[in-house]
Amino acid sequence: MAGGVGSRFWPLSTPEYPKQFIDILGCGRTMIQMTVDRFKGLCRPENLWVVTNRSYVETVRTQLPQILPDHILAEPAARNTAPCIAWACWSIRNEDPDANVVVTPSDAVVMDPVEFRRVISNALQFTADKEAVVTIGIKPSRPETGYGYVETGTGAGGEILSVSEFKEKPDIDTARKYLEKGNYLWNAGIFVWNVKTITSLISSYKPGIAKDMDEIISTGDVETIFPACEKISIDFAVMEPASKEGKVFTHPADFGWSDLGNWASLHDKLPKDSDSNAAVGQVSFHDCKDCIVHAEDARKVVLQGLEGYIVSEKNGCILVCRRSEEQRIREFSK
Amino acid sequence: MAGGVGSRFWPLSTPEYPKQFIDILGCGRTMIQMTVDRFKGLCRPENLWVVTNRSYVETVRTQLPQILPDHILAEPAARNTAPCIAWACWSIRNEDPDANVVVTPSDAVVMDPVEFRRVISNALQFTADKEAVVTIGIKPSRPETGYGYVETGTGAGGEILSVSEFKEKPDIDTARKYLEKGNYLWNAGIFVWNVKTITSLISSYKPGIAKDMDEIISTGDVETIFPACEKISIDFAVMEPASKEGKVFTHPADFGWSDLGNWASLHDKLPKDSDSNAAVGQVSFHDCKDCIVHAEDARKVVLQGLEGYIVSEKNGCILVCRRSEEQRIREFSK
For residue B305, which residues of chain A lie inside 8 Å, CB to CB? Predict the structure, then answer.
């Protein structure tokens, strides 16, 4: 899934060039390239699919030349994750009715790809021949209010546990309780299932979307049908009802995952100097503390006397902003 | 005089592109272009001379195409202002032994060029036919410690006063006393004289420099002779001894002069918003106060939560620095 638009990292990310297409960690690979990289050995290149907004198709082709051209699904409009995933899964079933599928966002970071492959392999084995969906559950390291949670139930074989309930983003007190109780995991939005299961579940819970997908596959008329699809997330459309039927499981995982949803999480993942400053680019700090800087394009950045600031530069735009005010960056970018 | 090198405004100014060649006020003209502009009606283009370091000759030609090519004097080495002025005046005398001369730095700002022309005209009339030098004395608006002062004496005709003494940059207490006393003016480094006077004074006080200049004019061997000249300022070489002989005068002036020697003086000269932020470029301020921003190249700059900072961008380099620490910018630029 590579359709996200966002300006939370402006000017680093823009609607023209959102986060998944940016080398946000400064490691020479964009987020979507790293996402594909971590499937090496799990999935052959000819079995990769990308669903994205049509305005990003050229960018996907350039960044991921190994993807077959007809495996890049170009959404004419954003309809949230259920139609996005449905279109991909219907298309995959059309090529291979027995396919095992991993669905993943393309803008998250995984620090330990070896562990990632081990976890995903387990989940794929688990879902290969049962009507079960697995959502990867990240072991929480802090009472995070920015993620949804899954409440785990009993063991289901190996490391896999049943999911008793999906929980939306909690407030801080609730998040603290989840952490204390110990049987709550972050919902990373990474799903594993076989294509028979997901198409059958969507057909049960969202017959309208299933009908739309049958038509798209038979007529090819994405242009008319897709924008008229119900706009709904996969969590609401499938995960919640399926969990009530005992069909949802989770594989607890600890592979250094972060959705890099904000500057704080980027600061968290980057190496820091002794004053807790993190930088991508040629940056020198003087009397600075707790700063996070991303300035890949700049030849040289000199910062003096900044404590707890974000400094970001891209394509001739510059942002300096207190870290405590980062939720206002979207407004600033307009 | 356009030989200055400086990184006080880094990254705006650099040794490759010092302040005189920069559009520091964001008005579409560089400092040296504005300096020449303000002589319109006072001096014909073919009578303009520029002394600069040889590495800046191309920049001078580009920015001032109206200057005759052999009126750009290219110093092979910096020898301070006395040899610089001597070379220009010897060259001018060679073309016109009766020339009246104005010497000016090329990196100062004058907000009222009409008043500038009036003052300079008065001074030129005064010096045309006497052995007198006039230094323009700026009426001080604050106890500035960054400038030299002249102590004025008695009236000498019109607005012109005698100079009883030159004073080097004072400490703050002394500067306050000067301001109280009322008969002290800032020495702007703008001099008016006729060419016979200055060549004769240099010959008296600095016969070595005079001999070097005679040789440069007769042999053209700038390359060997100029770098061996005595390295001394015109103030020490001529003004101080001449003032003891009663040959130095000043024209008090109030034409919005500033040498723009630091970010504070630039902040002073630029228009400011209601929070005292000044900007050159496409800058938007949020919760900012007393900031000074120069970002001509940037497409868009967004600043949040900065109080009393300098933000400067040029040619892919970015500086953010507390205004109180601006004296460290040179060190940062290395």
Answer: 309, 321-322, 325
Eight-class DSSP state of B20? G
Q: What is the mean pLDDT of chain A?
A: 95
Q: Is the peptide bond before B252 cis (omega within 30 degrees of 0)?
A: no
Band the pLDDT of B63: cuts 50, 70, 90: very high
pLDDT in tens, A164-198: 999 989 999 999 999 999 999 999 999 999 999 99
Whether A317 contacts chain B with CB within 8 A: yes
Q: For residue A334, what pLDDT band results from cuts at 50, 70 and 90?
A: confident
In this model, does residue A311 exceed pLDDT 90?
A: yes
- Is B313 in the A-facing interface, judged by CB distances under 8 Å? yes
User: Is A316 near chain B, with CB under 8 Å?
Assistant: yes
Residue identified by tokens 């790809």 is A113
Residue B333 touches partner A, C-beta closer than 8 Å: yes
**Is the CB of residue B304 less than 8 Å away from at least one CB of chain A?**
yes
Query: Would you call A321 an interface residue with chain B, using a CB distance cutoff of 8 Å?
Result: yes
Q: Is the ipTM of this complex over 0.95?
A: no
Record the pTM.
Answer: 0.86
Q: Do A297 and B311 touch (CB under 8 A)?
A: no
3-state DSSP of A76-123: CCCCCHHHHHHHHHHHHHHHCCCCEEEECCCCCEECCHHHHHHHHHHH
* Nearest residue of B to residue A326, measured between CA atoms: B304
Which one of B282, B300, B317, B324 would you mutate to disrupt binding with A, by most A Cβ within 10 Å of its Cβ?
B300
CB contacts, 8 Å: A300 with chain B: 11, 316-318
Residues whose CB falls within 8 Å of the CB of residue B252, separated by 6 or more in sequence, listed in order: B137, B138, B139, B152, B159, B161, B185
In the structure encoding, which two tokens stand for residue B2, read together? 């356009």
Q: Determine the Cα angle at A139 with ends A137 and A144, to 5°.
A: 100
Q: Find the mean pLDDT for residues A9-20.
A: 92
CB contact under 8 A, B305 and A322: yes
Residue B90: the pLDDT is: 98
| A185: Cα within 13 Å, side-chain hemisphere | 26
